[in-house]
Structure formats: C-alpha cells, structure tokens
Amino acid sequence: MRRFSEVIDELALRDLPLQGGPFTWSGGLNCQSRSRLDCFMISEDWENHFSGVSRSTLPRPVSDHFPILLDGGGVRRGPIPFRFENMWLKEEGFKELLKGWWQGFNYSGSYSFILTEKLNALKTKLKNWNKEVFGKVGVNMRVALDKVSFWDDLERQRVLNKQELEAREEAREDFKKWALMEEISWGRKSREMWLKEGDKNTRFFHKMANSNRMRNCLKKIKVNGIWLSEDQEIQRGVVRAYQNLLPDPGGWHPSMNCLEFDRIGVEEAAKLEETFSVEEVPKKGGANDLCNFRPISLVGSLYKLLAKILANRLKKIVSKVVSPTQNAFVEGRQILDAALIANEAKDSLKRDESCVLCKLDLEKAYEHINWDFLLTVMQKMGFGEKWTG
C-alpha cells in the first residue's frame, strides 16, 4: 500500500471529484462502515485534454461497492456565451476604439432598450475585431516564437546585421506581449485573481479553469418536481418554467385613475436620472481588511453596478413614496418589527375586544406582480421616463 501511494505521488495523479456521495463502499454491521475505496486516477495532462469529464456513483443492486460511471463530457449545451476579455485592455489603442464604437451607435426607444441594443452591437464589433485584428493568442504566440527561432538559427550561421537584430528583438517583444495576454485570459477563466499578472501562472490558471468547469457541471435538474437529464428535456423544461412564471390571466383589471399617490418633485425626479459618475460606484479607498470587500467588488457585472447606483439614488427619496405606516423600507425600522407588532395585536384579542385578523403568505410575491400596474403606480408617483421606460 505504501508503494502504491508512492507511485501516485511520483506520477502526480489525483482522484476526480465524485458526484452522488463521498464514499464508494459501505459494509459491516448495519452498513456503519464506509470508505472511498474505488477511484479514477488522472494526470494533469490527461485532464487538460478531457476537461469536461466527470464521474458519479450508480445504484448497487448486488455488490457492497457502488459502480462508478466515468462521463466524457458529451456535447456542449448551447452556444458559448460571449465574455469580455481583460487582455484586450492591454492592446494599444483599444480603449479609444471601444469609446468610438459606443458613441457611434444610435438607437431610439426606451432607455433600457437603447442600452440593450448598444451592448448587443458592441458585442458584435468586439467579436469581429477579435477575429480579424486581434487574432488567436495561441497562434500569435507560436508565430512570434517561430520568428525568434528563425533569427536564432540564422545567427548560428553568421553574424546578424542591425536590421535583423531589431527584427529579432521585435519578435521577442511580441512573444512577451502574447504570453502576458494568455496569462490574463486564463486568469479570468480561473477566477483566482489573487495571483499577480507577470508571474508564470498560466499552468495554474489552466488547471483552476478546468477544475471550475468540472465543479460547475450540471448533469440533471429538477423542474416542477421532475428530474430532467437529457439536453433537450432540460432546455424545454427551463423555457416552460420561465414562460409560466409571470402569467397574465387577462380580463378585468382595476382602474387607478381616481387614486392619489404621494409624489416626488420634478427636481428630485431629474436627479434620479442624472448621468452616472465614477464617484457613485461603491468602493472604499485603501481597503486592506476583508470586511471592506463585498460581493459587488468581486463581480465585473455592469448590471449589478447599475442596480447598486440606482438603489443609492432611490434611497434619498424613498421616504416620499413609501407610507410611514409601513415597516419595510423606512429608515430606522427593521422588518422584524412587524412580527412584534403582530404579536401585540394578537394579545389584544384577550381583552374581549372585537377585531379581525388576516394573515397573508405570498410565495415569491415579486414573481406574481403585473408589471404594467407597477409602472403605472411609479408614473403616478412622479418617476421619469428613464425609470418607467
């Protein structure tokens, strides 16, 4: 057994993550003994070639060992999503090019529609630029390395002149540039950003990216109480679930024309729609403690940043649109206060006083809201077109 462990260490083998439970064998009195005896041992090179592989336990009708199924990964579900590459920012002139594209897009409609269309158009521009101008990082690295090798071989035969020495130095700089690009790209994919750019971490990043891919692999999902495992079943099940999420039965809807709402002023509505500034992005200078970092600082998501900025702006006028009799969204109050007030109201029944108690339990309340009603209420409260469009 010791020699077996030594061989595993010498070959740098490791066991694949196991889906379905941590143990592969159980036995003894009432199956109280459990162990992980069976495994698939893989090397790093093998993992790099088969990054979508996973393994899981199967039912054991006869043996006290669980059969283990090794899944090679299969076909990718759906198209590859577009992702912005941080390495593009290292390309000279890219930021100016990006700014020119963004300012050149002209669309009409609601502000959310304009933002969506401009992002889609920018995505197309970036894809074409990456394919036609920037190129594949691995290919560019090999081309630069071949040029360096060519000049080195020529130098063994004769002395290089000044122009040839400059050409070799240019090829070396190109190789350094593309090597850094590759490192940044794998750094984003691995999400282990605590390692600094410039170290030779590409191998580590590659390994972490494959590990994340295997850990996030979803073989089956339960939709409306039914387990789905086939690609088409999962796709149809998820689409149907979201199609039925916000149904509108139609028919009669109450009118709100005669209702009066507390309104915000014109100046306050204009401040809500001011152009975003860098100062509004939540951050803390000189952050050096873990408590200074929040999930918003760890996610490069435009929509989450926008949501945070809008929430901070709304906080300034929320007291004018939320009734003071409410427990939620009122500064200085906690939502748990409602439970204490409910208990006090319940105790009043013991004083022979007549009253009526009504308890409402709304499951996923925001998924049953009629959005036309919500937007109409916001318009009556004085919110501008950007907020209700």
UniProtKB/TrEMBL annotation:
Protein name (database record): Transposon TX1 uncharacterized 149 kDa protein
CDD domains, sorted: RT_nLTR_like
InterPro entries linked: Endo/exonu/phosph_ase_sf, RT_dom
SUPFAM superfamilies: DNase I-like
Domain Reverse transcriptase: 281-386
Superkingdom of the organism of origin: Eukaryota
Signal peptide: none
